[in-house]
């Protein structure tokens, strides 16, 4: 039996709920790695225990470019309040894996950057898993 459009939509919603339930969104990381005052859109920073490859695979509705190895300061950009020297010391010459993508949900567009490994909020260690930095802007604002 071929599933109907409605049942496919329910299945997709269930997968999104499961995917987002596994995320841990952190206001401290959001303050560290995003602009202090966004004039347009909303930023959110979450983390996942899964690898960047699994995260890309799990976010099927997001159009990602290739996973690249980049310098940490390039991965995190200059918009946040974090200390760039601390970040560089923490990575100790290692590069971060980064995937950049976007999705259009009809009423909003979202830009998503995945970074792995990523610093914990105290900058004492690099965490396995993936940091998910998203920026959403709604239409008709």
Major beta-sheet overview: 7 strands, antiparallel
Number of helical stretches of at least 4 residues: 5
Structural class: alpha+beta
Taking all Cα atoms into account, the compactness measure Rg is: 16 Å
What are the low-pLDDT stretches, counting only 5+ consecutive residues below 50?
1-21
> Can you give the mean pLDDT?
85
Strand content: 25-35%
Q: What is the general shape?
A: globular
Distance between the termini: 43 Å
In helices, the fraction of residues equals 25-40%
> Strand-and-helix sequence, N→C?
HEHEHEEHHEEEEE
Q: What's the count of strands? A: 9
Instruction: Give the tally of structural domains.
Output: 1
Q: What do you see in this structure?
A:
The protein is an alpha+beta fold and 141 residues long. It has one domain (24-138). Helices cover 31% and strands 32% of the residues. The chain contains five helices and nine strands; from the N terminus they run H-E-H-E-H-E-E-H-H-E-E-E-E-E. It has helices at 5-21, 27-33, 52-58, 72-76, 84-91, and strands at residues 24-25, 42-48, 63-64, 68-70, 96-104, 108-116, 118-119, 126-127, 130-138. The strands form two sheets. Strands 1, 2, 3, 4, 5, 6 and 9 form a seven-stranded antiparallel sheet that branches. A two-stranded antiparallel ribbon has the order 7-8. The longest helix has 17 residues, at 5-21. It starts with a helix and ends with a strand. Mean pLDDT is 85; it is low at 1-21.
């Amino acid at each position: 039996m071929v599933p109907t459009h409605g049942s496919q939509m329910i299945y997709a919603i269930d997968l999104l709920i499961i995917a987002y339930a596994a995320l841990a969104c952190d206001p401290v990381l959001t303050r560290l790695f995003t602009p202090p005052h966004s004039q347009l859109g909303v930023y959110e920073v979450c983390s996942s225990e899964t690898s960047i490859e699994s995260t890309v695979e799990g976010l099927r509705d997001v159009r990602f470019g290739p996973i690249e190895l980049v310098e940490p300061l390039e991965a995190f950009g200059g918009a946040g309040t974090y200390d760039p020297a601390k970040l560089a010391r923490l990575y100790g010459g290692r590069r971060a894996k980064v995937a950049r993508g976007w999705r259009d949900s009809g009423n909003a567009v979202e830009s998503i950057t995945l970074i792995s490994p990523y610093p914990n909020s105290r900058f004492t260690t690099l965490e396995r898993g993936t940091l998910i930095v998203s920026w959403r802007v709604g239409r008709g604002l």
